[in-house]
C-alpha cells in the first residue's frame, strides 16, 4: 500500500480517523458489543482523550486500532481505521505489523507487567531498533541509552543493564514511554498510562509525555478514566459509555458546559474544594452488561433526564449549535435533549 | 514498593538529596558514584535475574547440594567406571555362582559368577545414558509441539493436543512389550526412542499450559503492539518465561525414565545382554531372592538412589524457580 509510506499527508486528512468502528466479543454466553459505531479523529500534534468508566470500551477501541485485539474472542465487525487516509483494517497482517511500533505505538497501563521480566530494559529497548531498522547490537544499545536519557532516567548508562523489577513504578513507565517513542511514531495510544502510579509521579509522567509529544509533534490518544489527568493535557475529549461515544468536545468547552447528562454526571462527581461539606454526587446505578445493552439510549436507566423517547429511540452523535444558531466546532452529543443540556 | 517522591524528583537536576534517597532503595547501588558497599544479603545486594536468583537459592538448599553431588558422582562413574573398579563386568566365574561377599568382591557374585560390585558400577552407564537421552528427546519434542500448540491455539492446538492424547493413552508396559519386541537392537536406542515416544505428551502438556500463561502477559501484547512478529514473540518473550516448569518436569521425569528402563529390562524387552543394566540384573536376581538376596539388593539399591537423586534435584529446582513457593 503506497499510501502507507511516510508521504506528506494532505492537510485535510487527519492522522488517524476512526469511522463507525464496531467490535464484538463472541463468548460462550453470548455476544458482547464492546464497541458500537465509534468515530473520532486525531490530528498531528493533537491530544484526544478518550474518557469512560471501566468496561466502556476504551481499551478495546485502542486494541482494535492497534490491531492487537485477541481474536477470538474479539472481532472487528465493521468500520474503518484510517491512518493517514489508508484503511488499516483491510491491510495485510505483515503491513500492519510494520506500522505497529514504527508509525503508531502504544503505552500500556502497568509497565511492570508490560515489560518482559527476564530481559534487561536495555535489551527490550534495543529490540525496537533491531526489529524495525535492522541495526546492529551495538548501535541499538547506544540508541537505547540515548532513549533512556531522553525520558530522563538518571544514570542511564549503567541502568540500561538492569531488569524491569529493579526500577520504581515511575521509572518503569518512563521506559514504556521510551519504547513507544523509540522509532518516533506519528501516533501514540496511551492506555491509562498513569493509573498504576501514585499521584505525584502521575503528574511527572504526564508532563513528560506531553512534552515529548510537543517535541515530536505526535498525535496522542490518551485513554483514561481520570478527569483530572485529562484537563491538563488534552485538546479534545471523547466520552464513551457502553461502547459508544456520548459526547465529543474541546476540553474547556466540555468542562465548562457539558452537553450530555452522562458527562455532567461525571463532572459533578469530581470532589471540589468549593463544595466541601456536601455529599459527593455519584452517577446512580451501574454501567450496563454489554451482552444486554438497554434499547434506546444506553444511558437511560441511569439518566436523571430520562423521557419516554430515550427508552425506544437511540440518539446518534449529532453536532451542537450555539445560542446564535451556529454550529459549535468539534462538538457532538448523543442525547435527545442535547440543546437543553447545553444551555442548562 | 512505596515510592518516595524524592526518587522521582531526582530526575530533575539530581541534587545530593536525590542521590541519598536513591541510595536507600534497591536501585541505589548503581546510582551513587561512591557506591556504598552493599550488605551481602540486604535488599541493596546486587539485584539478579531469574536464573541467577534461582542459582543463588539452590546453592544454599541442602537437598540440591546432596542430590547434585550424587548425580555428579553417578555421571562420573557412568563415563569412567574404572575410577572405582578394576573388574570387568563380563568376566564371570561360574564356580563362584551366588557366593556372598569375599575379599576384593564386596557385593558378592551373581548366578553367572560375575562380580556384583563391578556390574552395579557399570550399570550406571546404561541408566544414565537412557535417562539423559530420553529426557532430552522428550523435552525437545514435547516443548516444541506443546509450545506451538499453546502459542498458536486454534486448530494447531487441537491437532497437537489430540496427537499427544493418543500417545498419552498408550499403556507404557503394554506399549513397551509390543514396541520393543518388534524393534530390537543391542544398543540403548530403541529403549530411548520408545520412552521419548511415550514421554513427550507429558512435557508437551506442561509446555502448552505454561506458554498459554506466558503469552497472556501484558509484555507479549506490548511486544506485539510495538511490531514484533510471531517468531520473535515466541522465542524472546514467551519461551524464556515459560521454560521453567518444563525444566522442572523434565528433571523429575528423568528419574522415572531411569526406573522405566529398569522395568522394561526386567521384563526382558528393554536393554539386552551383554549390555550391563540394573534392570537386567534385578530381573536375574529376583527368582533367587531367597538364596542370594545380595544379588538383588545392590542393583536395586543403586537404582532407587539414582531415581531419588534426580527427583530430589527436580524438586529443588522447582522450589528455586517458583517464587511463590519461597
Largest sheet of chain A: 8 strands, mixed
Distance between the termini of chain A: 49 Å
Using only C-alpha atoms, the radius of gyration of chain B works out to 26 Å
What fold name stands as the CATH topology of the largest domain in chain A?
Answer: Rossmann fold
CATH top level class name of the largest domain in chain B: Mainly Alpha
Note poorly predicted spans of chain A.
1-7
Which homologous superfamily in CATH is the superfamily of the largest domain in chain A? P-loop containing nucleotide triphosphate hydrolases
Strand content of chain A: 15-25%
Radius of gyration of chain A: 21 Å
What oligomerization state is this entry in?
heterodimer
How much of the residues of chain B is beta strand, in percent?
A: under 5%
Domain ABC transporter (chain A): 18-267
Main location (chain A): membrane
GO molecular function, one term (chain A): ATP binding
Keywords (chain A): ATP-binding, Cell membrane, Membrane, Nucleotide-binding, Transport
Amino acid at each position: 500500500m503506497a499510501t502507507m509510506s511516510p508521504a506528506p499527508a494532505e492537510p485535510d486528512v487527519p492522522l488517524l480517523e476512526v469511522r463507525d468502528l464496531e467490535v464484538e466479543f463472541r463468548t460462550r454466553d453470548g455476544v458482547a458489543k464492546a464497541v458500537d459505531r465509534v468515530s473520532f479523529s486525531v490530528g498531528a500534534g493533537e491530544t484526544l482523550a478518550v474518557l469512560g468508566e471501566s468496561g466502556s470500551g476504551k481499551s478495546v477501541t485502542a486494541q482494535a486500532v492497534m490491531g492487537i485485539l485477541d481474536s477470538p474472542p474479539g472481532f472487528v465487525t465493521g468500520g474503518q481505521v484510517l491512518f493517514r487516509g489508508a484503511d488499516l483494517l483491510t491491510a495485510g497482517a505483515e503491513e500492519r505489523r510494520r506500522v505497529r511500533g514504527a508509525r503508531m505505538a502504544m503505552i500500556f497501563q502497568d509497565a511492570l507487567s508490560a515489560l518482559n521480566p527476564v530481559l534487561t530494559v536495555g535489551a527490550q529497548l534495543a529490540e525496537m531498533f533491531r526489529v524495525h531498522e535492522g541495526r546492529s547490537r551495538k548501535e541499538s544499545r547506544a540508541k537505547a541509552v540515548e532513549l533512556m536519557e531522553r525520558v530522563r532516567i538518571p544514570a542511564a548508562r549503567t541502568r540500561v543493564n538492569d531488569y524491569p523489577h529493579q526500577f520504581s513504578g515511575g521509572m518503569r513507565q518512563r521506559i514504556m514511554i521510551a519504547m513507544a517513542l523509540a522509532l518516533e511514531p506519528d501516533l501514540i495510544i496511551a492506555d491509562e498510562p498513569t493509573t498504576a502510579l501514585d499521584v505525584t509521579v502521575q503528574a511527572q509522567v504526564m508532563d513528560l509525555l506531553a512534552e515529548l509529544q510537543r517535541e515530536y509533534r505526535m498525535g496522542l490518544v490518551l485513554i483514561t478514566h481520570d478527569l483530572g489527568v485529562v484537563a491538563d493535557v488534552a485538546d479534545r475529549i471523547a466520552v464513551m459509555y457502553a461502547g459508544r461515544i456520548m459526547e465529543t468536545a474541546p476540553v474547556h468547552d466540555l468542562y465548562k458546559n457539558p452537553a450530555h447528562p452522562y458527562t455532567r454526571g461525571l463532572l459533578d462527581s469530581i470532589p471540589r474544594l468549593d463544595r466541601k461539606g456536601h455529599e459527593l454526587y455519584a452517577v446512580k446505578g451501574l454501567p450496563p452488561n454489554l451482552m444486554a445493552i438497554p434499547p434506546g439510549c444506553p444511558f437511560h436507566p441511569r439518566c436523571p433526564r430520562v423521557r419516554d423517547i430515550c427508552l425506544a429511540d437511540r440518539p446518534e452523535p449529532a453536532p451542537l449549535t450555539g445560542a446564535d444558531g451556529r454550529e459549535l466546532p468539534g462538538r457532538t452529543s448523543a442525547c435527545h435533549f442535547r440543546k437543553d443540556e447545553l444551555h442548562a | 514498593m512505596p515510592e518516595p517522591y524524592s526518587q522521582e524528583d531526582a530526575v530533575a537536576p539530581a541534587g545530593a538529596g536525590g542521590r541519598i534517597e536513591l541510595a536507600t532503595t534497591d536501585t541505589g547501588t548503581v546510582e551513587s558514584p561512591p557506591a556504598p558497599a552493599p550488605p551481602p544479603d540486604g535488599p541493596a545486594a546486587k539485584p539478579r535475574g531469574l536464573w541467577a536468583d534461582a542459582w543463588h537459592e539452590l546453592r544454599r538448599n541442602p537437598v540440591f547440594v546432596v542430590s547434585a553431588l550424587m548425580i555428579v558422582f553417578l555421571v562420573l562413574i557412568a563415563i569412567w567406571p574404572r575410577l572405582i573398579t578394576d573388574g570387568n563386568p563380563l568376566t564371570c566365574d561360574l564356580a563362584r555362582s551366588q557366593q556372598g561377599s569375599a575379599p576384593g568382591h564386596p557385593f558378592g557374585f551373581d548366578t553367572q559368577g560375575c562380580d556384583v560390585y563391578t556390574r552395579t558400577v557399570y550399570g550406571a552407564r546404561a541408566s544414565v545414558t537412557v535417562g539423559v537421552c530420553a529426557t532430552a528427546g522428550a523435552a525437545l519434542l514435547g516443548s516444541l509441539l506443546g509450545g506451538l500448540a499453546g502459542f498458536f491455539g486454534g486448530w494447531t492446538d487441537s491437532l497437537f493436543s489430540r496427537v499427544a492424547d493418543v500417545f498419552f493413552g498408550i499403556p507404557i508396559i503394554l506399549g513397551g512389550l509390543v514396541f520393543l519386541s518388534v524393534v530390537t537392537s543391542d544398543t540403548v536406542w530403541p529403549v530411548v526412542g520408545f520412552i521419548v515416544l511415550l514421554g513427550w505428551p507429558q512435557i508437551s502438556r506442561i509446555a502448552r499450559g505454561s506458554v498459554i500463561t506466558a503469552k497472556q502477559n501484558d509484555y507479549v501484547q506490548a511486544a506485539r503492539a510495538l511490531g514484533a512478529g510471531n517468531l520473535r514473540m515466541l522465542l524472546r518473550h514467551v519461551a524464556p518465561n515459560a521454560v521453567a516448569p518444563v525444566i522442572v518436569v523434565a528433571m523429575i521425569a528423568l528419574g522415572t525414565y531411569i526406573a522405566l528402563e529398569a522395568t522394561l529390562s526386567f521384563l526382558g524387552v528393554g536393554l539386552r545382554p551383554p549390555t550391563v543394566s540394573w534392570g537386567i540384573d534385578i530381573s536375574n536376581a529376583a527368582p533367587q531372592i531367597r538364596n542370594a538376596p545380595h544379588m538383588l539388593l545392590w542393583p536395586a539399591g543403586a537404582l532407587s538412589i539414582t531415581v531419588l537423586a534426580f527427583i530430589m534435584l527436580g524438586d529443588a529446582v522447582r522450589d528455586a524457580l517458583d517464587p511463590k513457593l519461597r
